[in-house]
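JOB MANIFEST
job_type = single_chain_structure
chain_count = 1
residues = 252
[input]
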Amino acid sequence: MKKLKNLVVFDLDGTLAESKAAIDPEMGALLNSLMRLTHVAIISGGDWPQFQQQVLGQLHQRKYLKNLVILPTCGTKYYEYNAGWKLLYAENFTPAESVTIIAALQKAVAESGLKIEKTWGEQIEDRGSQITFSALGQQAPLEAKKAFDPDFAKRKIITALLHQSLSAYAVNMGGATSIDVTKLGIDKAYGIHKLHDILHIKTKRVIYIGDALFKGGNDYPATTTGVACIQVDTIQETKRGIVAIIACLNMG
């Protein structure tokens, strides 16, 4: 493992933590132990402030942060640590593109026939390099989100419409209620290729761990890159996977 795998890449929501929740102390300790041994990257649909709240505030051993890369908004942004966090790139939309995408999202939701009785906060958020539709709103409670669309059926109707109206963009389902829109070709696969270019780590030496590796899920682009992909269904599965990787690296 030590010779073959030099980078472990994680999705965030549903993989390292529940949707928009902070990683728990056990996960924080496991990530610190893993960063001591190899490079780690976290790539998710949330923007930079979400990573600060969910992950960085829970990692108390700062000396290992040089081995951590954060890729917000599905890899359309890239942060590295060098005496502080630095933004390396951001693939932002133009104002005109944002207007087009938001209008298409609103139209697709209306045409899908989706009925929502209650929302918590705004449904559409412009994150600069990604525009995200959250069906129940950005601040919806976890239990409501889990019950909303567990089989992705509701969002598949909306994404099918978006693939027609936003064919020049990438559209993927993420989290429990979300649909993410990024520039075409700029998704988690793009983020993985940027990791390869910047860290000089070959894709065959990378593991990707996520909960939405199925076609249409926002982890799915990772399966096209040649990295080893591991599907997890719970946070506990992720923890067991990290424990196994750490054991293999320590044996190497």
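[summary]
The CA atoms of residues 149 and 177 lie 7 Å apart.
The two ends are 6 Å apart (CA to CA).
exit_status = 0
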